[in-house]
């Protein structure tokens, strides 16, 4: 049976999942076309390219928010000196939290992200709409409606809804409210919607039978989110990962984000050591941050696993 294994030795985030699946052979152009069925493609632009992370060639996937691009361009044009809005982008690949929002700082379109040699294999899909809808604070109910009404397959819809429910229930538990009343920036961000629905699209596109994953390293230290300075893992991430084996690490930073946690928890049938596989394809999805000691990538292995007798 066709098995996909998430080797999360450097954690997992939504953009790393998409990058790894593309790197393993999923068709990014198919992803672009399917995501248009959400009818929010006037809000974002997709970019993917090859980068090298500590010696490993991998695919970096980004969702560029068009509102932010327009706003930043307006700021650039109104300031004679330009101020060089590079901001380093060293954000622990964390889409979900308001403390960083790695895709909103698209001042130069170079997307360097401290990624060593980018190889310039960049694919941009600009939709050139003159208007934009600033819906970055969609509620859980808004997102469910968006997915249900999209012309996606039932399998993709169900997978995406299952992932979003993981995040919604975690946030609802933390904030003390029922799922239906959850309304928060983290899940409503366009990049999180794209990462989650995109992961569902590509997983089914690859026709995988079984999904397994390693233990999940979450990182150490502190991060700043909308509600203040919190320990790593963030409350939502830890809530989502209840019952899942976590791996100790001394690396400072947020290795696993709420979106990454929700994707792997919703998809993986088992969390285990590397399974017995006849490997067919391997993909590496790059995170944003660069570490001194190891490549900040998610590894995906796809292969045939013998049916148990």
From TrEMBL:
<dbReference type="InterPro" id="IPR002822">
    <property type="entry name" value="Ni_insertion"/>
</dbReference>
<dbReference type="InterPro" id="IPR002395">
    <property type="entry name" value="Kininogen"/>
</dbReference>
<protein>
    <submittedName>
        <fullName>DUF111 family protein</fullName>
    </submittedName>
</protein>
<feature type="compositionally biased region" description="Basic and acidic residues">
    <location>
        <begin position="109"/>
        <end position="127"/>
    </location>
</feature>
<feature type="compositionally biased region" description="Basic residues">
    <location>
        <begin position="128"/>
        <end position="138"/>
    </location>
</feature>
<feature type="region of interest" description="Disordered">
    <location>
        <begin position="76"/>
        <end position="138"/>
    </location>
</feature>
<keyword id="KW-0533">Nickel</keyword>
<feature type="compositionally biased region" description="Basic and acidic residues">
    <location>
        <begin position="76"/>
        <end position="99"/>
    </location>
</feature>
<dbReference type="Pfam" id="PF01969">
    <property type="entry name" value="Ni_insertion"/>
</dbReference>
């Amino acid at each position: 049976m066709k098995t996909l294994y998430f080797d999360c030795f450097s954690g997992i985030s939504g953009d790393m999942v998409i990058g790894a699946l593309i790197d393993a052979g999923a068709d990014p152009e198919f992803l672009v076309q399917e995501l248009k069925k959400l009818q929010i493609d006037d809000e974002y632009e997709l970019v993917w390219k090859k980068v090298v992370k500590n010696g490993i060639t991998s695919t970096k996937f980004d969702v560029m928010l068009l509102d932010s691009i327009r706003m930043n361009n307006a700021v650039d044009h109104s300031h004679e000196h330009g101020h060089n809005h590079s901001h380093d982008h060293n954000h622990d690949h964390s889409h979900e939290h308001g403390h960083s929002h790695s895709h909103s700082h698209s001042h130069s379109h170079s997307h360097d992200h401290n990624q060593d040699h980018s190889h310039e294999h960049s694919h941009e899909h600009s939709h050139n709409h003159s208007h934009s809808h600033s819906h970055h604070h969609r509620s859980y109910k808004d997102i469910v409606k968006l997915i249900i009404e999209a012309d996606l397959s039932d399998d993709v819809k169900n997978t995406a809804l299952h992932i979003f429910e993981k995040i919604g229930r975690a946030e609802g538990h933390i904030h003390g409210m029922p799922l239906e009343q959850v309304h928060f920036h983290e899940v409503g961000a366009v990049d999180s919607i794209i990462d989650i629905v995109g992961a569902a699209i590509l997983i089914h596109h690859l026709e995988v039978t079984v999904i397994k994953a390693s233990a999940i390293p979450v990182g150490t230290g502190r991060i700043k989110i909308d509600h203040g300075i919190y320990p790593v893992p963030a409350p939502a991430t830890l809530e989502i990962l209840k019952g899942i084996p976590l791996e100790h690490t001394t690396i400072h930073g947020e290795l696993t984000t709420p979106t990454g946690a929700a994707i792997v928890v919703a998809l993986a049938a088992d969390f285990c050591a590397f399974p017995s596989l006849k490997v067919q394809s391997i993909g590496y999805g790059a995170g944003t941050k660069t570490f001194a000691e190891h490549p900040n990538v998610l590894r995906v292995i796809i292969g045939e696993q013998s049916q148990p007798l």
